[in-house]
Amino acid sequence: MNEILIQYYPEIIIFCSILLSLIFSVMQAKMEDLMNFVLTVGLFLFAILVVFKGKIFIHTDYILMKEPFTYYFKAIALFSFIVIAIILRKGLRDFSIEINEFPVLLLSILLGTFLLISGNDFALIFLSVELLSLSTYVMCAMTPGFKNSTESAMKYFILGALSTSFFAFGIAMMYGVSGTFSFYDIELIMKAQTEIPILFQLGCVFILVALLLKISAAPFHVWLPDIFQGSPLAVVIFIGTIPKIAALGILIRLLYGPFEPLYQSWIPIICICGLLSVGWGMFSAMGQTNLKRLLAYSSIAHIGFIILPLINQNIRGLQASLSYLTFYMLTLLSVFGIILWFQRIGHKIENIKDLSVVNRYHPNMTALLGLLFISLSGMPPFSGFFVKLHVITSFFANKESMSSVLISVYLLLMSVVAAYYYLNIIKEIYFNNLPEASIMKQAPINDILAKTTIIVIALISIGFFWIPLISQIREDLIGKAVSSLMRL
């Protein structure tokens, strides 16, 4: 009994925190106090995860799994949650958010993420997806004063409902074949089959389509640019990080678990969506002038880099995928963190050209933002170069396969395209003619903790691969996560 309670302690803590947040919001507590409570919960959970990380439970009867792979994804999601809470903990009204239930939604998203990452049962996974999705829909629509907020939330809701339908159909088909919702039992049943039933294959396709829509992989990406552009930055930073971490975590667990017998069936789907995401995202980003819309298309391209190595179905490919995911989430937190910091001190960033205005007053922070964009482009000696190289070289293990060689060449060429539009941002910052009338007055800075956190995270993301201590920790954690997933 104690072991079961220890297994569920993070989810229990988050659920109790949601109830307390509801009580505080009804009592009309100050928004700053509510966000400080959310931050405290996040820090407490992170401390608990570090203390109990050695308590590993992989018992197949448990509805939640606790293994190095799930621990790694929970750690990334919780770390992102804490960073976002630090950035937003003072003055949410500065970001056009004035609703006291916002912290409740943040904690609900975190609970859905934890359940989704560690779920060992399709019924629980479905409920977790709904908890995560519904909280995100409300978060997008809760700022009616923000331009296009309601429209973008409606688009997100409609496409999310479509994703839910696909997911439910897929689960129903798998249950019809196997008679169980358990990942472990389904995997055993499918491996015992001499021929995989067509209904199971259709169920796999439906579930993959639903998850690819959640992570905004092409051609299921059309909702993301509108959501990014139509929502406040405080909401966008959540949409772009934590829900995607959760969806990618369960996608990878399914591909290397219950769907492993269907390797030859799902490889074309992941490969086509990955290649389309990289190409579509990068070429669409080239013509963008709105910064949030550019980052949305950039996100689609980076999702392609994350999911493509999975088709290798080997240790090297999975390590490359997790490394790229971690690097990208750290960099995205840093980029949005700097933009949010600019917004807090009075500089509203909408278009790329607005960054040249900010550069007049805050050259150091703007230079750091420029380095992050250069790292995202994949230029050496920054981390972006090494993670992209890791992804590309992961296909060399199958160098006798012409398709692997072609994918490597394609990714290399697309990295050159990415360098164009990221370096174009640098050009706009430093070489754009700035009218004197557009220069804004500086507002007082009152959140040193947020600024310090953003700078530290940015430096970590830039040196993610070549700072010895961070690189060693990364290799150790990813190595354990990969080994546990592939049961080595």
Could you explain how this protein is built, in words?
The model has no long low-confidence stretch (mean pLDDT 83). The chain is globular. The protein contains 20 helices and no strands. Helix 3 crosses helix 20 (468-485), helix 6 (149-178) packs antiparallel against helix 8 and helix 15 crosses helix 18. The longest helix is centred in the middle third of the chain and has 30 residues, at 149-178. It has 3 domains: 1-120; 147-301, no CATH class; 314-488, no CATH class. The protein has helices at residues 2-26, 31-51, 68-88, 102-118, 122-141, 149-178, 183-192, 198-214, 223-230, 233-239, 242-255, 263-285, 291-307, 315-344, 354-361, 363-377, 383-393, 402-431, 448-462, 468-485. It is an all-alpha fold and 488 residues long.
Shape: globular
Number of helices: 20
The major beta sheet can be summarized as:
none
Beta percentage is: under 5%
Poorly predicted sequence stretches spanning 5 or more consecutive residues? none
Helix percent reads over 70%
Q: Quickly count the domains.
A: 3
Short synopsis of the structure:
With 488 residues, the protein is mainly α. It has helices at 2-26, 31-51, 68-88, 102-118, 122-141, 149-178, 183-192, 198-214, 223-230, 233-239, 242-255, 263-285, 291-307, 315-344, 354-361, 363-377, 383-393, 402-431, 448-462, 468-485. 73% of the residues lie in helices and 0% in strands.
Secondary structure elements and pairings:
Elements: H1 2-26, H2 31-51, H3 68-88, H4 102-118, H5 122-141, H6 149-178, H7 183-192, H8 198-214, H9 223-230, H10 233-239, H11 242-255, H12 263-285, H13 291-307, H14 315-344, H15 354-361, H16 363-377, H17 383-393, H18 402-431, H19 448-462, H20 468-485
Helix pairs in contact: 1-2, 1-4, 2-3, 3-4, 3-11, 3-14, 3-19, 3-20, 4-5, 4-11, 5-6, 6-8, 6-9, 8-11, 8-12, 9-13, 10-14, 12-13, 12-18, 13-14, 14-16, 14-17, 14-19, 14-20, 15-16, 15-18, 16-18, 16-19, 17-18
